Amino acid sequence: MTTKITEKMCFSPAFNYVDDGIEHGVLSPFETKEIILEKGQQIADGFKPLTSAIKMLKDVPVKMRDGVTIYTDIFLPVTEEKVPVLIAWSPYGKSAGTAPRYKNLFNMLGMGNHWNSGLTKFEAPDPAYWCAHGYAVCNPDMRGIAHSEGDTTMIGSQEAEDGYDLIEWLAAQSWSNGKTALTGTSYLAFSQWYIAAEQPPHLTCINPTEGLADGYRDLAFIGGIPDPNFIERLQVNHVSATGAKREDLIKEMAAYPLADADVWQDKVANPSKITVPAFVIASYSNTLHTMGTFRSWRTLGSTEKWLRIHDRQEWPYYYDENNTEELRRFFDYYLLEKDNGWATTPTVRYSLIDFQGGNQTDIPAETFPPVSSETKRYYLNGKFRTLQQTAETEDFPVKYVADGLPGRSSFQMTFDKDTHFVGYPKAKLFMEVAGYDDMDVFVWVQKLDQFGTILSEFVVPNHGAALQDFTQEGASALRYKGAWGRLRASMRQLDSKLTTEEIPAYSFNQVEKLAQGEIVELEIALSPIGLAYKAGETLRVVISTKDELGSVMPGTPGCTPDNQGTHILHTGGEYASYLQLPVMQISPKE
């Protein structure tokens, strides 16, 4: 049956699917058939010619357990040997590799389109590469998308069950060796947390490359603050040629504002149920996926698992030639049973960012944070606006007006020796608000060079003027600016079962407004960090009434804070606010 949770979901009509062979790619017109794509063939102008012949099984029907039929494209090497299959689960159009919207996106990022064949589903593996190395690639249109039947849901048990059914169907095909894997970035990564937790018998391994893990905490209400704008952008992909409906998360945000609603509980991944080998890819810089990726890594049930923390945005990382070759070593080991030494790969490889061209990457460790990382508190001094290792004995309140300038307060410390921070930072702030009953608080940890210049770095190839404009106060996933966190004060209640000394976790199941004169304790989880400071450089922590990093991607607004009145930050005595940072006791160079 269709999952019962769909009875509580809010639906809207899906967007119209334009089946003109352009809008959704040159191979999008619907027809169930077999095609041989010849070696040297170019799918569309600007794309890489095929390096080997490929058998394409187009618009193949696959029946789900409730009788709904979805359609998938399958790309196979031209061989009599049975092969494993890589699955790219998302709503992004199985034939849309040559769609104008994706061509324009990759051009904007400075990647161009020559790196792939045009058969590549958005954020998915390129069939041309993988078929040439003995793999099949499956690009499904999930239920409700294009010609697939049923209504589209977004994150949760319905997608998980459908993914399970597709995996088991693929493993039973005559061309299959019975082994399957999930791979891809962003949506194709976070769908893996849900599908793999269902434990399909023929799922062999997974490769989540940066993916959120909680529809409420990582997407709709980050820090308890509603943010519908990026969701609206995502839902535009829910297009149907059959008159399907689509789950409308914007409506659900209004109908179910707290995280304990069944709809949101269904969108909480449980990676502890995942038992297959996992090669997890993360970064510090992805303002949409970083928190969920690291949370999933911490709770992942797999006994064979690896974490690689890189220093780029997910798409240039995933399609980099060397990184693709390394991923093939992982898949070759588990899907083709090649004895290639993959098992000796360090469990964790992390990066250390310096924002000045000297990033260190692939530093090996057994855990994250490394065992040589130790938490340390730096207390806010309100009088001198500094950070210090001991708290002031008396409180010195710092005030700033929510709707005035600067609308923030910052604190700094300059290092007298090289210092590295690797792990999970947080802020504990004692705050009140005058003239209102709530606060949206944004925290940002920056690096300043010896001249006081605020540093950041692009994580995509394009560093041009237009992208400078977009990323100066937005498009935060494309330009790394430091660790960040946010919290709505009325949603400050901690989840006692999940909170640790290093990482606060919130229940988000009640609203507790602030009374006049009430000082509340806010524990704000900040994004994981791997940041290097040299002697003479400065760490600045900014506490603001607005999201100064801005939106996730260009052209999409960020969240709208609910701030009025005057924020009062207390900085001493019994209200000793502090920034807690993970300090490396031993430099990776030593």
TrEMBL record:
<dbReference type="InterPro" id="IPR000383">
    <property type="entry name" value="Xaa-Pro-like_dom"/>
</dbReference>
<protein>
    <submittedName>
        <fullName>CocE/NonD family hydrolase</fullName>
    </submittedName>
</protein>
<dbReference type="InterPro" id="IPR008979">
    <property type="entry name" value="Galactose-bd-like_sf"/>
</dbReference>
<dbReference type="InterPro" id="IPR029058">
    <property type="entry name" value="AB_hydrolase_fold"/>
</dbReference>
<dbReference type="InterPro" id="IPR005674">
    <property type="entry name" value="CocE/Ser_esterase"/>
</dbReference>
<dbReference type="InterPro" id="IPR013736">
    <property type="entry name" value="Xaa-Pro_dipept_C"/>
</dbReference>
<dbReference type="InterPro" id="IPR050585">
    <property type="entry name" value="Xaa-Pro_dipeptidyl-ppase/CocE"/>
</dbReference>
<dbReference type="Pfam" id="PF08530">
    <property type="entry name" value="PepX_C"/>
</dbReference>
<keyword id="KW-0378">Hydrolase</keyword>
<dbReference type="GO" id="GO:0008239">
    <property type="term" value="F:dipeptidyl-peptidase activity"/>
</dbReference>
<feature type="domain" description="Xaa-Pro dipeptidyl-peptidase C-terminal">
    <location>
        <begin position="328"/>
        <end position="580"/>
    </location>
</feature>
<dbReference type="Pfam" id="PF02129">
    <property type="entry name" value="Peptidase_S15"/>
</dbReference>
